[in-house]
Every structure is written in C-alpha cells, then in structure tokens.
Amino acid sequence: IFFGADKTINELCFCKLQGKVDDCNCTIDAVDYFNNKKAYPRISSLVLKDYFRFYKVNLKAKCPFWTDDSRCAMRYCNVKPCRQSDLPPVYKGFANGGDVSYTLSKNLASDDCEQDTNAELSFLNTTLSASIMEDFAAWKAYDDAQDYYCQLPDVDDEAEYVDLTLNPERFTGYKGKSAHRIWNSIYMENCFRPKNSYGAYIRSSKLNGMCLEKRVFYRVVSGLHASINLHLCANYLLSERESYGIISDTGRWGKNFKEFERRFSPAMTDGEGPQWLRNLYFVYSLELRALEKAAPYLEQEKYYTGREKEDNETVAAVNDFLRVVKTFPEHFNESAMFQGGDSAKKLKADFKSHFRNISRIMDCVGCDKCKLWGKLQIQGLGTALKILFADHVDFESEAQKGQFSTFRLRRSEIVALFNSIARLSSSIYELDQFGLTMR
Ligand SMILES: Cc1cc2nc3c(=O)[nH]c(=O)nc-3n(C[C@H](O)[C@H](O)[C@H](O)COP(=O)(O)OP(=O)(O)OC[C@H]3O[C@@H](n4cnc5c(N)ncnc54)[C@H](O)[C@@H]3O)c2cc1C
C-alpha cells in the first residue's frame, strides 16, 4: 500500500538483513528465531512486574554541556509559560507527584516557538498511587541495608520513581535541531573516528578500517539509535485528534510504514538504513551476553518489593528468562576486546569515559519522555558494559561462595538492564512484524 507496486520488500531493505551479525558469531536468523519465539514473550511480561516497572531517575538535572538549558537550545527561543486558564483539561488534576509549574515551563511551547517537540505527546505521567509511594520507603530501607558493598551510593536527591508502564516509549514528535544536537553530540563523543572523517555520522563502509573496540562503540550507539527510531515508527500517532489546539494523546496509534521506509530503506538513507538495523542486532547480542555472564549474580538477587508472592513470582520469571538466555548458542565474545598491554588499558579507559559522557548528554534531551527512555537505555547499556568488562569477577565461583564481594549492581542498574534488553527485544520483534505485514 505504502511502497507502491513497483517496489518489493527486498528492494527496501530486508534483503540485506541476513547473514552474520557484524562483529558477532551469531546470524540474524538465529537472533530472530531466539528473540521472537523465546526471549520476547518472557522479557515483555517480566518488565511489567513491580520490581522492573518503577525506575528511579533524575529528569531535572541541568544539561552540563551547553550553557543555555535544553529547552532553549531545543527551540532556539524563549519559552513563554502558558497561563493556568489556557491549560487543556488533560493537564488539570494530575496530583500525586505531578509538578504543574515544572511541566508548564518545560513542555508547553508558545505559538511563536519553533516546535521541536509536542507538549502533550512528550508529557510524562508521574502519577503514582499512595500505596506504592509507601512501598518505596520500604524498598529504600532494604536497598540501604544491601548497599554495604556498594561503591557508588545513590545520593541523587532529585531522583524520583517513574512508572514506566504509564509512559511507553513511542512517537513523541521530538525532532529538529534539539534532537539532532543530541545525536550529533553523541556521535561526536565517539572520538574513535576513522581517519579523515569530519561530520558526526560515520559511514558504515568506513568501519572496517577501525579496530574492534571502536567499531563496538559505534555499533552500540547506532543500534540504540535504530531501536529508538524503530519504536517511534511502530508506535506512531496515525491520526491526530485536535483538542485545544494541540495534538491529543487519544488518537489512533500503530505502525507507520512510510516513516519506517523513510528512516531505514536504502533508497532514503543512502544505503545506510539496513546497516543501522544490523547494529540493533549487535547491541542486542551484546546485552544478551551480559545477562548470560551475570546470570549467577542475577539468580541470587531477591527482587524485593515487600510483597512476598509478587517477589517469588519475579524471581521465578527472572530465572526462567535467564535459563532461556543461556540456551542461545552463539553469544557475543567480549574476551577479544581490550587485549594487549598498556595501549589496551588506555583504550578501555577512553571507552569508559566516552560512554560516561554520553550518559551525561542525556540530561540535555529536550523531551521528558525521550529523556526517560534515553537515560534508562543508556544506563542499561552501561550496566551491560560494566558486567562484560568486569575482568576481576569470577561470577560462577562468587555465586558458589554465596557472596559477591567485589561486584555489586544497584536496583536501578538491574531495572535498567532488563528494561533495555526488553526494548531491544521489542525492536527486533517489531522489525519482524513490519516485515511480515509488508509481505
Ligand atoms: C535520546 C533520544 C531519545 C529519543 N526518543 C524519542 C522517542 O521516544 N520518541 C520520538 O518520537 N522521538 C525520540 N527521539 C527523536 C528521534 O530519535 C529523532 O531524532 C527524530 O525523530 C528526528 O529524526 P530524523 O529523521 O531527523 O533523524 P535522527 O534520528 O534525528 O538522526 C539524525 C541523523 O543520524 C543518522 N542516523 C539515523 N539513524 C542512525 C543510526 N541508527 N545509526 C547511525 N546513524 C543514524 C542519520 O544521518 C540522520 O540524519 C529521541 C531522540 C534522542 C536523542
């Protein structure tokens, strides 16, 4: 319907999505089969459990990189807060943690601003029930007691719990200069660049001239970028219902094939789209391997929420998921990275510091919902890298001793890790749905 009779699916991009996942031993087909039949059904229900559904995050931290805040950088204009009387009903009465003044000044654009985002679509629902608020105190007491081994206590007073199920990752309308500035900065942060490459974006054909570690860095970022953009195509606002002059959240949502074509077909992306999708498979394989490696640690975690029945179910569901993860035949091999003396050590340190900078760039994202999911997925990826490159930890033998003395994951790291693999898993599943529906 959307591509016209003269174009087949193969001409668009799926023909190139076969063979080996770059820099991995596994094939695209093996990942598709494993994910869509085994992993996706499990992880998508697992992340609905209370332990995984509430993510503690600071969305108010100032952007540390550019002097004007993300709001001004985003629209290149001053934002004029609306009057209370201008508010549409949907914004009225969201008590329980919703800070109206913050939402107003941050998200509602005045008419004469360049609209880089849509206020209502990027609106973050911060509603939390009174009973769950009470539970958080018990969670904190429990986590504090566990934090004895923690090297990095969570001292971020501004961090708040957000219910991820109320804020699905989907089309928000965030685009233009602000979004480009973020992606641009992220790719520029990758100082591991091919020789004679000047723009922020690296052409896939140049990657082969780079060493494995640098390629990995690029692929994880590009894979995450592909996943975010795939989700917005899969959960797109198909028909807008106007209310009070802004697009309503209650319109019809679904797959937008044209948008998918624009973002991923070779014709519209100068041949790069399929490579970006391949990088999605790469970052998925990398996070999957992190889960496999950390399984002995994750299997002894209590997944505490204070509700015994729910906690037991969560433990059982995590163990079932990890059991399946271990059956994946050809995991990513991280041991090939950072080999060889002082230069490898320096490369590893650079890798870490560039990645930390990317996580700080997330504070500059000018749309709260995008920031929430961006932060979560970057933290999940960071946790996966922390696991993969924790050379000093023998997960099996520490688990046998019943105590991990040199390694610890905080609750937010575990929540981010599982939710980020759930996002990647969903992207691969959605890709299959796009393919199937288009055939
Ligand atoms: C952290 C973050 C989270 C976001 N979350 C959301 C969201 O939840 N919902 C939403 O609707 N929008 C979200 N966005 C915005 C979205 O990602 C796009 O930036 C926006 O839709 C504009 O798209 P674009 O076509 O201009 O290209 P962009 O996606 O902005 O890409 C800019 C350039 O990067 C290159 N590029 C594109 N994809 C890749 C890739 N996979 N690998 C390598 N290079 C690539 C291309 O040259 C492209 O022109 C988010 C943006 C950021 C930075």
From TrEMBL:
<keyword id="KW-0813">Transport</keyword>
<feature type="active site">
    <location>
        <position position="370"/>
    </location>
</feature>
<dbReference type="GO" id="GO:0016972">
    <property type="term" value="F:thiol oxidase activity"/>
</dbReference>
<dbReference type="GO" id="GO:0015035">
    <property type="term" value="F:protein-disulfide reductase activity"/>
</dbReference>
<protein>
    <recommendedName>
        <fullName>Ero1-like protein</fullName>
    </recommendedName>
</protein>
<dbReference type="GO" id="GO:0005789">
    <property type="term" value="C:endoplasmic reticulum membrane"/>
</dbReference>
<keyword id="KW-0472">Membrane</keyword>
<keyword id="KW-0285">Flavoprotein</keyword>
<feature type="binding site">
    <location>
        <position position="263"/>
    </location>
    <ligand>
        <name>FAD</name>
    </ligand>
</feature>
<dbReference type="InterPro" id="IPR007266">
    <property type="entry name" value="Ero1"/>
</dbReference>
<dbReference type="InterPro" id="IPR037192">
    <property type="entry name" value="ERO1-like_sf"/>
</dbReference>
<keyword id="KW-0732">Signal</keyword>
<keyword id="KW-0676">Redox-active center</keyword>
<dbReference type="GO" id="GO:0034975">
    <property type="term" value="P:protein folding in endoplasmic reticulum"/>
</dbReference>
<feature type="binding site">
    <location>
        <position position="183"/>
    </location>
    <ligand>
        <name>FAD</name>
    </ligand>
</feature>
<keyword id="KW-0325">Glycoprotein</keyword>
<keyword id="KW-0560">Oxidoreductase</keyword>
<feature type="binding site">
    <location>
        <position position="170"/>
    </location>
    <ligand>
        <name>FAD</name>
    </ligand>
</feature>
<feature type="disulfide bond" description="Redox-active">
    <location>
        <begin position="72"/>
        <end position="77"/>
    </location>
</feature>
<comment type="subunit">
    <text>May function both as a monomer and a homodimer.</text>
</comment>
<keyword id="KW-0274">FAD</keyword>
<keyword id="KW-0256">Endoplasmic reticulum</keyword>
<keyword id="KW-0249">Electron transport</keyword>
<feature type="binding site">
    <location>
        <position position="172"/>
    </location>
    <ligand>
        <name>FAD</name>
    </ligand>
</feature>
<feature type="binding site">
    <location>
        <position position="222"/>
    </location>
    <ligand>
        <name>FAD</name>
    </ligand>
</feature>
<feature type="disulfide bond" description="Redox-active">
    <location>
        <begin position="367"/>
        <end position="370"/>
    </location>
</feature>
<dbReference type="GO" id="GO:0071949">
    <property type="term" value="F:FAD binding"/>
</dbReference>
<feature type="binding site">
    <location>
        <position position="225"/>
    </location>
    <ligand>
        <name>FAD</name>
    </ligand>
</feature>
<comment type="similarity">
    <text>Belongs to the EROs family.</text>
</comment>
<keyword id="KW-1015">Disulfide bond</keyword>
<dbReference type="Pfam" id="PF04137">
    <property type="entry name" value="ERO1"/>
</dbReference>
<feature type="active site" description="Nucleophile">
    <location>
        <position position="367"/>
    </location>
</feature>
